[in-house]
Write a structure and sequence with these properties.
Strand content: 15-25%
CATH class of the largest domain: Mainly Alpha
Distance between the termini: 30 Å
Bound molecules: flavin-adenine dinucleotide
CATH architecture of the largest domain: Up-down Bundle
Number of strands: 10
CATH superfamily of the largest domain: Butyryl-CoA Dehydrogenase, subunit A, domain 3
Number of helices: 10
Order of helices and strands: HHHHHEEEEEEEEHEEHHHH
Shape: globular
Helix content: 40-55%
Length: 384
């Protein structure tokens, strides 16, 4: 579980960036619900948009541990910035890197790594959330193209993105075996952005609807093969869950550090509130949950770096579920430690508490993670 010297250096560099450049914008991008373009460009300048992409295609050539380190540090000060970056770097770019053919890698990765295009991933539909394979977006082959019709919702980076990995049904009668992944550019005819959603948290990570009306996608943009979309999807689910774990870990750490500092400085009844056992109990539990969140998250990242994608179903779901619950608990308790000030926007913990709730919903809800854990430990075949 020890980081290498390079990983420690990366952590230090991103921590400084987070404190100096990202944290000062966190309040504003949450208030204005706007994409954190300044921080995104800083990450681009540091060569971190394509963190897992080989240098030949313009990336940093790093692994999932590094992806989690960057995610944790950004999330400690601004979860929205981590979400905007993670959607681009993990959900879109890493997916294309894993599943793209040579022509697709050469065409899409360099501009995505340079930040000329912003990426996203579109799976969820109005009637297909946890039951994602019930999706209705239809892709019909016509000559050397596919024509897409349908709607995706809740798509991170949807309102600002240029390139999306989109899942559609090419053979509806074949269920999960009839799904295909496509690389779709916003310039393709028939692609439209629908509404932008107003949200409780993750407000600087814009979420939108994508509408496909006779949207023409060249056949060469099939990602991973026709009717092999479920495999494309599965290839990233575990690493995405571990990265969501790193988000929850960072968020929880940010809230804990704020509460710890405040508890030492705030005086009531003539003493710092940190001297009261009821406050100490909260801080102690927060510290313990963060340590356990760190262990399970970086265990998952290490397994992903070792290529143990199939073996890590349990670890990925443990990481996603445990850290999300811990972040919800820790951010809520951090507000409590700050009392009335915790409820005010001049401290970041109220934003962090709002941000935490999404960690229990996005990327597979808590209930879905529990179902996966049950499926694994009971060797069930017919669940998610
Ligand atoms: C801010 C935000 C960003 C998002 N970004 C993206 C994105 O970039 N790309 C994308 O494709 N999607 C994205 N999503 C969608 C997200 O992944 C889904 O919201 C999530 O998977 C849950 O689906 P749902 O909202 O339809 O809820 P539902 O599936 O309708 O679930 C509703 C409730 O029922 C529970 N439930 C469902 N099935 C079962 C069951 N079998 N047993 C027990 N309980 C069950 C759920 O746990 C939940 O509590 C995003 C969502 C949000 C809110």
């Amino acid at each position: 579980m020890e980081f290498t010297d390079e990983q420690r250096m990366l952590r230090e560099t991103i921590r400084q960036l987070a404190e100096k450049e990202v944290a000062p914008l966190a309040y504003e991008i949450d208030r204005d619900e706007r994409f954190p373009v300044e921080s995104f460009n800083k990450l681009r300048d540091m060569g971190l948009l394509g963190i897992t992409v080989p240098a030949d295609y313009g990336g940093a050539g790093a692994g999932y541990t590094e992806m989690c380190i960057v995610t944790e540090e950004l999330s400690a000060v601004c979860l929205s910035t981590a979400a905007a970056w993670g959607t681009h770097a993990c959900l879109c770019i890493d997916n294309i890197r894993r599943n793209g053919n040579e022509a697709q890698l050469a065409k899409y990765l360099p501009p995505l790594c340079r930040g000329e295009w912003i990426g996203g991933l579109a799976m969820t539909e109005p009637s297909a959330g946890s039951d994602v394979m019930s999706m209705r977006l239809r892709a019909e082959r016509r000559g050397d193209a596919y024509v897409l019709n349908g709607t995706k919702i809740f798509i991170s980076n949807g309102p600002v993105g240029d390139v999306f990995v989109v899942y559609a049904k090419t053979a509806p009668e074949r269920g999960a075996h009839g799904v295909t992944a496509f690389i779709v550019e916003n310039a393709f005819p028939g692609f439209q952005r629908g509404k932008k959603f107003e949200k409780m948290g993750w407000r600087g990570s814009p979420t939108g609807e994508l509408i496909f009306e006779d949207c023409v996608v060249p056949a060469e943009n099939v990602l991973g093969g026709e009717n092999r979309g479920a495999l494309v999807l599965m290839s990233g689910l575990n690493t995405e869950r571990v990265c969501l774990g790193a988000m929850s870990l960072g968020l929880a750490r940010g809230a804990y550090e704020c509460a710890l500092k405040y508890a030492k400085e705030r005086v009531q009844f003539g003493k710092p509130i940190a001297s009261f056992q009821l406050i100490q109990a909260k801080l102690a539990e927060m510290a313990m949950l963060i340590e356990l969140s760190r262990l399970i998250t970086y265990k998952g990242a290490k397994m992903a770096d070792m290529g143990l994608h199939r073996e890590m179903n349990l670890t990925a779901s443990y990481a996603k579920l445990f850290t999300a619950r811990a972040a919800m608990k820790i951010t809520t308790e951090a507000v409590q430690v700050l009392g009335g000030y915790g409820y005010m926007k001049e401290f970041p913990v109220e934003r962090m508490m709002r941000d935490a709730k999404l960690q229990q919903i996005g990327g597979g809800t808590d209930e879905v993670q529990i179902m996966i854990i049950a499926r694994e430990i009971l060797a069930l075949k017919d669940q998610v």
